[in-house]
Amino acid sequence: MSKDLASLRQNRATAYDALIALGTPEAEADQTAFDAAATNVENLDRQIKSMERAQALKGSTAVPAAPRQDPSEAGSFDSFGEQLLAVARAGNGGERDPRLVWQSIGAASGQNEGSGPDGGFLVQQDFTSELLKKAYERSDLASRTRKIPLGPNSNGLRMNAVKETSRANGSRFGGIQAFWTGEGAQKTASQLQFRQMDLRLHKLTGLLYATDENLEDATSLEAIINEAFEEEFAFKIDWAVFEGTGAGMPLGVTKSPALVTVSKEGSQVADSLVAENILKMWARLWVRSRKNAIWTINQQLEPQLYQMNVKIKNVAGTENVGGIALPPVVYVPPGGQNNNNDYGLLMGRPVIPTEFNSAPGDKGDIVLMDLKEYLMIDKGAAKKATSIHVKFITDETAFRFVVRIDGQPVWESPLTPFKGSDTLSPYVTLEAR
């Protein structure tokens, strides 16, 4: 709907109010005023119908959804902010910049962003690629996962993975086994066993409204939008990697059936974290994950990590007296003499406080995970589109962002070791205390 049509409808509403205010004509002068007011309403009705008819014709012929102009033929925008200003000018009735390209949404019913005055503009590819790239760079978890980009005609990934739940003879790699064989003896066959990992893209979307005042400054607007969505997308993707349900979103590490949960100590104080917890979690981590693993914690646990450097407490929370003390579990804080990293170190691996870990004392307040054993797929660059009409009456422009991703842990169950009874996993947490 254009500004002219909106103005006509507003004028019609005002004219009708004026007509009603005249009431029932009782004198010739009153009748003349009433007839004039009624004629004004009728004239406005005819103008509105004519304008609506013209708009309908324009929607079907004026801006075809395809073929689209190659933006490279008309040059490209120097910045995202410059493109947003061009969108605003076009939406407000100004000349359309030839570098703008319409977006077509064939599945939409009724009014859609495929053409004409209710259309949306595709955002330049290099700008959209940058948003997803920055979101990954800002993330603490997704940036460490194993990523597979998808091709243009794919909306998911189905791949074979080895079905291995035990390292016992006859179970490694789902059934492969080698035998010591004497000279001339018959060989014994064995067979791999596979399972299928099925990943399907899910949409992570964002919608932002910018006022006309925001749109007056391309640099300011670009900074606001990019900062907001890079942070928000990074947050939501990391949250999904940590505890996504797998329903309409990725499956998170803490929801994985392969998660190993270490028991608390027998007389452990509520909400506490003791050296025994750390040592036992480390012992349940799959050995090949030790070089890649990270600790994620609720930030409120940090004071207890520092205390492990000072003295060893027993499970009741008091200092050990007599007997053989446990070896100290040393937490190395960030920025110290022995650690120039951004994060502290525990058992030599980074300790990353997140907003996703549970409150102290709850299961999931500390998690040890190897995110190289987590697979993510994405469709590449984020899709961005803009529309001047969604919030037209409040002088706001809508900016829509869509990222399509999925992810899940590679492991489907903990692993029984070749010798020993405690299962191992790349994902380990501590039970509630």
Characterise the protein shown here.
The protein is an alpha+beta fold and 433 residues long. 30% of the residues lie in helices and 20% in strands. It has helices at 3-22, 28-61, 80-91, 125-138, 212-215, 218-243, 275-284, 302-310, and strands at 101-103, 120-122, 146-149, 156-162, 194-200, 202-211, 260-262, 294-297, 331-332, 344-346, 349-353, 366-369, 374-378, 383-391, 396-409, 427-430. The strands form 3 sheets. Strands 1, 2, 3, 6, 13, 14 and 15 form a 7-stranded mixed beta sheet that branches. The protein has a 7-stranded mixed beta sheet with strand order 7-16-12-8-11-10-9. A two-stranded antiparallel ribbon has the order 4-5. Its main location: virion. Pfam families: Phage_capsid. It comes from Aminobacter carboxidus. Residues 119-418 form the Phage capsid-like C-terminal domain. It is found in: Virion.
Summarize the structure.
The protein has 433 residues and is of the alpha+beta class. The chain has 8 helices and 16 strands.
Explain the layout of strands and helices.
Layout: H1 3-22, H2 28-61, H3 80-91, E1 101-103, E2 120-122, H4 125-138, E3 146-149, E4 156-162, E5 194-200, E6 202-211, H5 212-215, H6 218-243, E7 260-262, H7 275-284, E8 294-297, H8 302-310, E9 331-332, E10 344-346, E11 349-353, E12 366-369, E13 374-378, E14 383-391, E15 396-409, E16 427-430
Parallel strand pairs: 3-13, 7-16, 8-11
Antiparallel strand pairs: 1-2, 2-14, 4-5, 6-15, 8-12, 9-10, 10-11, 12-16, 13-15, 14-15
